[in-house]
Amino acid sequence: MTSFEVTALVRAKLEATRALVLDVDGVMTTGVITIDDHGNELKAFHVHDGYGIQALMQRGIRVAIMSGRKSDAVERRAQELNITDVHQGLKDKSVALAEFARSHGLNYLEIAHIGDDIPDLVLFEHVGLAVAVANAVPKIKESADLVLTRSGGDGAIREFSDLLLSIQQT
User: Fold this and answer.
1) CB 156 within 8 A of CB 136
2) What is the pTM of this model?
3) Is the pLDDT of residue 2 over 80?
4) Phi, psi at 102, each rounded to 5°
């Protein structure tokens, strides 16, 4: 489990969660962007996070990816994990959030978002549960309902999925 305390309010928000929206750079990855000599962008994803995502989906939690950047590596990783809600190159993530909620019959209060940087604030303002990775910028940590102990790209998503599933099992 985790080494932080879950307040009654956060517990209630976890119990209500039916969907998870993930940022990519700094959440699914460490935030490092590697470009090879041929201009190919490389990203590293943590296998534990992938297992956590699949565990959520097996329990009926819908998972979406929303990123301001566009990357073929993200498309491939999403396909491997069977994530069909992939929104990249977003100027305004709130538009994609509204479409995601509408298309799946979700209330914003049923959606959690894991973020790490200022572009995630717009989603934090809308979702029911705002979650920051351990290495998020200070403004994100201050705005979050929950700050994870793991960093982006280093098992933070798995930490959240384990927490969510343990709360929803009780």
Assistant:
1) no
2) 0.95
3) no
4) -60, -45
CA distance 83 to 75: 9
Cα dist from 63 to 4, 32, 128, 151, 163, whole Å: 24, 23, 15, 19, 16
Which pairs from 78-83 meet CB under 8 Å and 24+ separation? 80/50, 81/50, 81/53, 81/54, 81/57, 82/54, 82/57, 83/53, 83/57
Give the angle subtended at the CA of 63 by the CAs of 153 and 9, to the nearest 5°: 85
pLDDT of amino acid 3: 59
| Residue 169 half-sphere exposure toward CB, CA atoms < 13 A | 9
Phi, psi of 64 (to 5 degrees): -130, 155
Nearest CA-CA partner of 67 in 25, 32, 103: 25
For residues 164 and 10, what is the distance between their CA atoms, to the nearest angstrom?
10
Which residue type, as a one-letter code, is found at position 41?
E
What is the number of residues in the chain? 170
